[in-house]
Write a structure and sequence with these properties.
Helix content is 27%, strand content 37%. The two termini are 28 Å apart. The chain has two domains: 2-83, no CATH class; 86-119, no CATH class. It is an alpha+beta fold. The radius of gyration is 15 Å and the shape is globular. A four-stranded antiparallel sheet has the order 1-2-3-4. A four-stranded antiparallel sheet has the order 5-6-7-8, with no helix packed on it. Helix 1 (2-11) crosses helix 2.
């Protein structure tokens, strides 16, 4: 987790370390006035997300959403670049709640949140 925080703080200098929860499953590890960077763990897969803040009343919610939309491509790119062997892209989900992921940069593989690597 330390390396992910280091990489994101270097790319986005306004991020500061935090330690809290957004709901019951999302651990807030970084944030600024506009977003919370959360980590969720599902059956050994970790999801890193940039979530707009709704709790900072100094700024309109649309500004937080716009900030997250603006950094979205850079956020994904920096994580894929720094962690190419672990980067997964969520491709969809099944009716039983299982998510399907495709390894970034490694065509042909499929990973699910329940079974691990399928093929």
């Amino acid at each position: 987790m330390g390396r992910i925080k280091e990489v994101l703080m270097k790319r986005f200098p306004s991020l500061r370390e935090e330690n809290g929860w957004l709901g019951r499953e999302d651990h807030v590890v970084l944030g600024n006035s506009h977003c919370a960077i959360t980590v969720s763990d599902y059956c050994g897969l970790a999801a890193v997300c940039c979530t707009p803040r709704e709790d900072d009343h100094r700024y309109p919610a649309s500004l937080a959403q716009n900030w997250c939309d603006t950094v979205d491509n850079s956020f994904v790119a920096v994580l894929h670049k720094e962690f190419p062997e672990m980067a997964l892209w969520r491709d969809g989900g099944m009716s039983n709640g299982c998510s399907v992921y495709i390894p970034v940069g490694r065509p042909g593989g499929v990973v699910t949140s329940n079974e691990g690597i399928l093929w």
